[in-house]
Design a protein that fits this description.
single chain; 421 residues; alpha+beta; Alpha-Beta Plaits; DNA polymerase, domain 1; Dna Ligase, domain 1; 15 strands; 37% helix
Length: 421
């Protein structure tokens, strides 16, 4: 049976990104709290609240801005400890990760050893949820934070600086039943609101709804909703750590202080990274720039909300990073690391899987694609092969979509479409 652990830390970054090693401290990223110390938590600070709310809850706390370059070694140290428990590790955020425990001979001993290695050197509090799916493991940790831990449905083990909650086998649906629909964290806000409009106030009510009713409202997603309500999550833990990284370097033998020369160099490096990422339909979530000037190495980093592979976006990010660095000497080398390489989101593959970075190559690729489409149209009718931009939703479907916005996700008509870049 599948076994999944969701691990959440507190205090991992507090004291590591600032000289303050004790007292109340809060780490902010993009204006929201991502980590806080025990004292700040006691005052009412929680993950996700905005900066002004954190100030109101704990006005004496030290506020620390998240620094990717400084935080990365600390986060990697945490994830390295997780790999001692399981080789399949999926980082979720700076302080959270999933681990696949399936087949682990002594689960309890492995988690206890992990906690003892983690506390107090890296974090001051750890919560671990263990269940048969990612959905349930994370929901168990959220429930533990709010005091929901029914003894006949789950088992809580308290270790020094840590709590481990395990949802018992066979009790998954009963454990979720009294919880509100928003505890099904895989659902977006629109779906949760739609469920509430149907009168669903508890997950147990959702599990009892007829699938035909859910199919009419949510299309093919109705079956998934029932599975999630019963604690069944088909999404496995993805092996995203150790992270894949791509590196590009460029050296200047004589050194240069010319901003134009460095801008051109960064543009070429971004284009090469785009080619390597696009070849495998991947993108990077992190970009690190190292600038060497004499004996000194300057570092700057930034993250992306989604896997990024566009040369333009990478070039702009690199130019912004180098502008922040206080480099006062001629630059001797540049190094760019594209980190957290993952499958790209929403990339439409074409008929050719080699990277197309040159404008001449792009024209040739379009011509080949055009010849292929013409050959397909001769073999099949125009009603089968259509260009994506020429596809039009029938008026009846458009009118029905106004009444039921979820209808479009369950369309039974499938077009074989070719998209021109």
């Amino acid at each position: 049976m599948k076994r999944v652990a969701f691990i959440e830390l507190r205090g991992l970054l507090c004291g590591k990104l600032t000289a303050v090693s004790s007292g109340a401290s809060v780490v902010l990223k993009d204006g929201a709290v991502i980590d806080y110390s025990a004292e700040a938590g006691s005052a009412g600070v929680s993950v996700g609240i905005r900066e002004r709310h954190a100030r109101q809850a704990c006005h004496w706390a030290t506020l620390v801005r998240y620094d990717e370059a400084a935080a990365r070694p600390v986060i990697d140290a945490f994830l390295e400890l997780v790999t001692r428990v399981s080789p399949i590790v999926e980082p979720v955020s700076e302080t959270q990760a999933f681990a696949d425990l399936t087949g682990l001979p002594d689960e309890a001993a492995a988690l206890a050893a992990f906690v003892s290695a983690l506390v107090p050197d890296l974090a001051d509090r750890v919560r671990i949820g263990v269940a048969s799916s990612k959905l349930l493991a994370k929901a168990a940790v959220v429930g533990l934070q709010s005091g929901y831990a029914p003894g006949r449905l789950c088992r809580v083990t308290r270790l020094p600086g840590a709590e481990v909650i395990e949802v018992l086998r066979g009790a998954e649906a009963e454990y979720l039943a009294p919880l509100p629909p928003d505890r099904l964290w895989r659902l977006d806000g629109a779906t949760v609101s739609a469920l509430e409009s149907l009168g669903v106030t508890a997950i147990g009510q959702l599990a009892k709804l007829p699938q035909s009713q859910l199919n009419r409202r949510f299309g093919s997603g109705g079956r998934l909703l029932i599975d999630l309500a019963r604690g069944i999550d088909p999404v496995p833990v993805r092996p995203l750590y150790p992270r894949r990284e791509l590196e590009e370097r460029m050296a200047f033998d004589e050194g240069t202080a010319d901003a134009g020369v460095m801008a051109v160099a960064l543009g070429r490096m971004a284009a090469r990274l785009e080619g390597r990422l696009s070849r495998d339909l991947e993108g990077c979530r992190r970009l690190l720039l190292e600038v060497r000037a004499g004996p000194t190495a300057y570092h700057a980093a930034r993250g992306f909300a989604r896997p990024e592979a566009s040369a333009g976006a990478l070039r702009t990010a690199l130019q912004n990073l180098i502008a922040r660095l206080p480099v006062n000497e001629p630059v001797t080398s540049l190094k760019v690391v594209a980190g957290d390489v993952q499958p790209a989101v929403g990339i439409q593959p074409d008929l050719f899987f080699e990277p197309v970075t040159d404008s001449h190559e792009r024209v040739e690729a379009r011509e080949r694609l055009g010849h292929t489409l013409e050959a397909l149209k001769k073999k099949y009718s125009d009603r089968v092969i259509t260009l994506g931009k020429d596809d039009e939703v029938p008026r009846r479907e458009r009118m029905l979509a106004l009444w039921d916005p979820y209808r479009s996700s369950s369309s039974s008509v499938l077009h074989l479409a070719a998209y021109r870049r």
